[in-house]
Amino acid sequence: MTARLCAVFHCGSPAASDYSPYCRRHKSTLRRHGATGQRGIAKAELAPYLARVEARIAKNPDSEAWSLMEGTWTTIIAEANATANRRVGNRYERSAANEIAAIALDCTPGEVIRTVLAMVLFWHDQPRRFASDEALRVQIARRVRALSQRHVGLRYDHRTGQQVRVYREMTPKAAGILGRKLMIAFGAIGLHLAALDDRDRKAAQEAKQRLATAISQLS
Ligand SMILES: [Zn+2]
To answer: What is the pTM of this model?
Structure first.
C-alpha cells in the first residue's frame, strides 16, 4: 500500500502503485483516452460534424480532392503493410501498422477520411472537448478504429454459458501513432473545410441581417 495520492487535482484516491502518479481510474483513462481528463468522443457526438463533411462533399462531387485523399490513405496502408511484415523495427510502429492493416480490411477509404475530417471540424468548434494534443490524436484513432469490427472479439462466459463480446483496446502508443499519421495526412484539409463552413455560416447570417434590415425599412 502506497501513501501517495493521485496526481489529478481534487481526485483524492490513492496512487495505483509506487510507480504510478495516478489512481487506478485515472491511469486507465490516460491509457484509453490519451489524457486523465479526456472523455471518449461518442459516435452520436460526431454525427453532426460527419453530416457537415458529407454536405461539403455533396456540394463538390467532381472535386479531385476526395480521390487524392483516398490515394493518401492507400499510401498509409501500403506503408503499414510493409511495416507490419518487417520482423525488426520499433514495436510501437508495428503495433500501429497492424491496427491500420486491420482497419483497411473492413473500411472504405472514404469512411476513414470522412471520420478524420469530421473529428477535425469537431476539434475546431469545441477545442476544449480535447484535454491535450495527444488526447485529440488518440480520439481520432479510436473513432477511426471503431469503423472496423476486428477489435471486437468473443469470449465464452463460463458462468452464463454464453458468448460475450469483448473489446480489445488499442495500445496507447499505437493510438498516438495512428492519430498522428491521420492528422499529418488530413488535419490541414479538415481545418480548411472548417474555415469554409465558417465562411458559409457568416454569409447566411449576413443575408438574414440584410433581409431583416430591408423589411424594417419597408414603407
Ligand atoms: Zn485519480
So the answer is: 0.89
Q: Domain extents for the chain?
A: 1-33, 40-201
In terms of Cα–Cα distance, which of 156, 182, 213, 38 is closest to 96?
A: 182
Q: What is the pLDDT of residues 118-130, one digit of tens each?
A: 999 999 999 999 9
Residue 210 DSSP code: H
Query: CA 118 to CA 52: how far, in whole Å?
Result: 8
Helix pair 43-59, 172-216: axis angle to 10 deg: 60
What is the rounded CA–CA span in Å between residue 119 and residue 122?
Answer: 5
21 Cα: distance to centroid of ligand 1 (angstroms): 9
The residues placing their C-beta within 5 Å of ligand 1, an ion, are 6, 8, 11, 13, 23, 26
To the nearest 10°, the Cα dihedral for 137, 141, 144, 147? -150
